[in-house]
Design brief:
18 helices, Rossmann fold
Length: 442
């Protein structure tokens, strides 16, 4: 049988006595002394279960611990803490929101081993059930607008001429560019995206065209530019309108001659690469204002495409939202199960000025911050004034019923959290989270 793997963060090796060798048979344990070491370990290897031994401790470290746990929500964390800490609201809230379970000192090693085993088994089930993140290069949808774009991509993919893509910010211009590349004869080559507005002006020529050793201070060795590294493939120049005017002439020369000159070199280098450019700015307007070369515009605008904004393809929204939701399930551990009807109605009413990028950000935020099992319109920040009264009424009714059930169970169990958790069929951490949510003191 394969060994189960556990990442243990323990600041003091003497506290490892809680992990009895007899009880932990069948486990391979990596113990690290700091959260930064744990973060490094998680970059190197995936762990389903983690143990924090006395890490949730001094108040001045709370921010660091919370930041670490927010970045590693896909791990089922078990905490070992001093008994008095969980009586303090700040510590109780941290444990309730981020931990699968917790133990207080003195630790019962047999019970801790059982908790870890249960957490590992549950994590394995979730890991098998959760779908793999959807690839970011898919053109999702069957709306007339997206079908037109898909047909245009199929036509332009087979030729080698430059493509100019226009679309609003966040609409998916890079997705369309990568779809062209993947459907083209160059699919086996590199796809190199370059954001022309994100590279400092003093570096962009070197980044695009490369340089020779000694060409300027700091140029200690020859360097190939991004265009050169994409030989045999495709270069995607995003936000081409931000390319400085003096570099536009260099790009024009490359499009005409298919050769580049590295900075500091007099030798031309032939490069076989296809150029796809994109902009949220209408380049005709930039040409009229003198900010963009007219001859370069016509060189790029051989095969123009337009990516439709999300508001023009609303029929694709439910499927697109589900794909984005599934892509973050592993990150959030599958705690949230889907969208409420009110949330989906609110999404269909919203105009999405930030397009697909706004949809992605709202869904990701809601999956992290939602209190319930489903995402509500409020979780998405999409409650229009006075237009979702039914949804708000349902949410208020659910909150009231939840609070009443919690209070009744606690009173029946004499305020014993463990007994209340068993009677409601939830974990103690859920009880503590709900008590905090509804301002119910112990």
């Amino acid at each position: 049988m394969n060994s189960k793997e556990l990442l243990c963060v323990c600041t003091d090796a003497r506290h490892m006595s809680a992990l009895s060798p007899a009880e932990m048979q069948g486990w391979t344990i990596l113990t690290v002394p700091t959260l930064s070491a744990a973060a490094h370990a998680l970059r190197e290897r995936r762990y389903l279960v983690g143990l924090l031994v006395d890490v949730v401790g001094p108040p001045h470290l709370m921010g660091e611990v919370e930041l670490f746990l927010n970045h590693h929500r896909d791990v089922s964390w078990i905490a070992v803490v001093e008994p008095g800490l969980v009586q303090l609201p700040a510590y109780r809230d941290l444990v309730a929101r981020h931990m699968a379970d917790y133990h207080t000192r003195p630790v019962d090693s047999e019970r801790l081993a059982f908790t870890l085993g249960h957490a590992y088994g549950h994590a394995m089930l979730c890991d098998a059930a959760l779908p793999v993140a959807a690839p970011p290069t898919r053109l999702t949808g069957t709306s007339p607008a997206i079908e037109r774009l898909r047909a245009q991509i199929h036509k332009v993919a087979g030729v080698n001429a430059p493509v100019l893509i226009w679309g609003e910010s966040g609409s998916g211009k890079e997705v369309a560019a990568q779809a062209i590349h993947e459907a083209s004869p160059r699919a086996a080559g590199a796809f190199v995206p370059i954001n022309c507005g994100a590279i400092p002006a003093n570096l962009i020529q070197s980044e695009l065209f490369g340089h020779q050793r000694g060409a300027f201070t700091g140029a200690t060795k020859d360097k190939a530019g991004l265009i050169e590294t994409a030989a045999g493939g495709t270069v995607f120049l995003d936000e081409i309108a931000d390319l400085p005017k003096d570099l536009q002439s260099n790009l024009l020369r490359f499009l005409q001659e298919k050769t580049i000159y590295r900075i500091g070199s007099t030798r031309s280098i032939s490069v076989d690469v296809r150029i796809i450019a994109a902009s949220h700015v209408k380049l005709q307007d930039a040409v009229a204002e003198g900010a963009f070369r007219e001859d370069l515009y016509y060189r790029l605008n051989v095969l123009p495409l337009t990516v439709p904004p999300l508001r023009e393809r609303k029929s694709d929204l439910p499927r697109l939202a589900d794909e984005l939701f599934n892509s973050f399930l592993r990150e959030t551990g599958g705690r949230v199960k889907g969208f409420s009807n009110c949330a989906m109605d609110a999404m269909m009413r919203h105009e999405w000025p930030g397009n697909v990028r706004e949809l992605l950000n709202r869904i990701r935020y809601a999956m992290v911050m939602a209190d319930g099992a489903v995402i509500t319109a409020a979780d998405l920040g999409l409650l229009p004034d006075g237009s979702d009264q039914l949804g708000q009424a349902l949410d208020r009714s659910r909150e009231k019923a939840e609070r009443t059930a919690l209070l009744t169970s606690l009173e029946r169990c004499g305020r014993n959290v463990s007994q209340a958790a068993r009677s409601l069929g939830v974990s103690r951490t859920t009880i503590y989270r709900l008590m905090e949510k509804h301002a119910i003191s112990r």
